C-alpha cells in the first residue's frame, strides 16, 4: 500500500485505460482517436496526495483525473492542428480534480454578503437570484424526496426507484396518493419500502419503464450487467462513440473566424457556436466544459418545462439562456435558424423527446446537409444508444445501479446491498467525456469534412469505470475506510442523507481537498453578485491557454433567442 499513488495511477489510467484502450480505436464504425494523440501523453502532468482521500471503494479520483487528462490530450491535438502551437504542458492536481464532482456542493453565492451555501436541490434559498422553476415539488418534503431511493423488492432484489422531476408518476404507478402527508424521513421510506416489497424486481422494471415511462432499475452486479443483453449490445462502446456522416458538399473546415480577428489560442474554442438543449447535470456539463475553452453557448429551454435552478448555478457558466416554446411552429422555426448558424448541437433530453419536435439527430443532420460546413450533433442519455433499453430514461443513480457500481460500493462496506456512491460522479464524468468527444469531432471535421454524431451515455462511463478503472486494491481500501472509522451506509440512504454525511467527514478528515487555492471568486454580471466556485481543473504553467467563461451564469429565459453580433456581449437584448 505504501507505494500506491493517486497521481501515478491517474497517469497510468490515462495511458492504458483511455488512450491505448482498444474501445477508442474505431470499433463498429466509430472514429478512432487522432493518430498523434499518444504524442501528447508526456505533456500531461499529475500531482496531489498519494493516498486516496474520499472513502469510496471506486477509484473516482483516478477516474476523473484521467478523463481530464484525456481532455487535455485532445485539446493539445486541436491546438497544434488549428493554431500550429507546440504541445502545452498541462498540470492536473488530483486533489483539485475531485472537486469537479463536488462543485455544486461547494458553491457559495455572495460570499461577502448573504453567503448562501448548501444549494443542491434547494431552490428556495436562491430565489433572490434564480426564480424557482421546479414545478412538481420533486425535492420538497420527505415524501417526494424519498421517492428517489433504493428499496428491496418482494423477491429480494433491490430496485432503484426514481421520482424523475415529477414524483407523482412513480407514486401513482405504485398505487400511492401524490398528496400523502408524512412527518419524517423514516415514515416516507417505510411507505415506499412497503409498496415496493409487493412487486418483484422484474415486475417493477416493466411497471416503471414500460407502462409508466418512469426511470428505475434493478440494482445488478457488474457481472450481471456485462453479461446481459443490454450490456453486450453496448460492450463495444468506449467513453463515447463518434460517427462520421460524409457529405461532398461539406469540405474540411474549422469554425468561422470572428470579426476578422486572428484566431487566439488563449481561448481555443472562441467563435464556436453551440446550441445547448440540456437539463440537469450530465448534458449541461458538456456545454459548460466547451464554454470554459472559449466557446459561445446558447442554451434554449422553455418557460413550460420544469428545471432545477440550484443546478443551473453550477452548470450555467458561459451560457446565454433563452426561451423558445417548441409547441409553437414560429419558435421551432427560430430554433432551426439558430442551428443553421451553429457548429454544435447538444441534446441532453431523454431519448426521442427532440425527435418529437423535429430536432433529433437525423432531423438536424438533414437540416444542415445543404450548407457548406457540417454540424456536430452530440446526444447524451443514460443507458446508451444500443440494446433493448436504449429508449429508457435514466439518471446517475440509475446508471450506478444498473451497471453494478452501487452494489459493489455496498459490499465494500460489508453489506450485501447496493448503496449509491454519494456524489454526482458519473454525471460529471459523462460531461467531460461528451466535451472531449466534441473536441474530437471538431478535429475530424477539419480533416475530413462532413458532419459528426457524438454518442455519450452515463452507462458508457459507468461500464468504463467497471472494466477499465476499477476499485482500490484491498489493502488501500481497508486503510482508506479505516481512516474514516469504517462508516457504513445502507440501500435506503439516498443522496440527501449520504452527501451531508460525506461532506462532514471529508472536511474533518481531509481538509486538503478544500484548499483555498482550488477555488476562485467569480462575478456574474446578470446576477450582480460574486460566487465562490471551483477553479478550472486543467492548469497551464506556460499561460498560453486561459480557461474561463465569456459570459456569467444567469436565470433561464433572460436572453433573446438569437446569436449576437458580438460573441462577448454579456446579454442578448
Q: Which helices and strands occur, and which strands form pairs?
A:
Elements: H1 6-19, E1 44-47, H2 60-83, E2 90-93, H3 94-97, H4 103-106, E3 108-109, H5 141-145, E4 149-152, E5 158-161, H6 167-173, H7 185-196, H8 201-211, E6 216-218, H9 222-227, H10 229-233, E7 241-245, E8 273-277, H11 282-292, E9 296-301, H12 309-315, E10 319-323, H13 329-340, E11 344-347, H14 353-356, H15 361-368, E12 376-381, H16 396-402, H17 405-412, H18 425-448, E13 451-457, H19 458-469, H20 474-483, H21 495-509, E14 519-524, E15 529-534
Protein traits:
seven-stranded mixed β-sheet, 21 helices, 15 strands, Rossmann fold, formyl-coa transferase, domain 3, 573 residues, 2 domains, three-stranded antiparallel β-sheet
Which spans of ≥5 residues are poorly predicted at pLDDT below 50?
none
Give the CA-CA distance, first to last residue: 58 Å
CATH architecture field of the largest domain: 3-Layer(aba) Sandwich
Whole-angstrom Rg:
23 Å
Q: Indicate the overall shape.
A: globular
Largest sheet: 7 strands, mixed
Proportion of residues in helical segments: 25-40%
SS elements, strand count: 15
At the first level of CATH, the class of the largest domain is Alpha Beta
Q: What is the mean predicted local confidence, pLDDT?
A: 97
Family: Belongs to the CoA-transferase III family.
Pfam families: CoA_transf_3
GO molecular function: catalytic activity
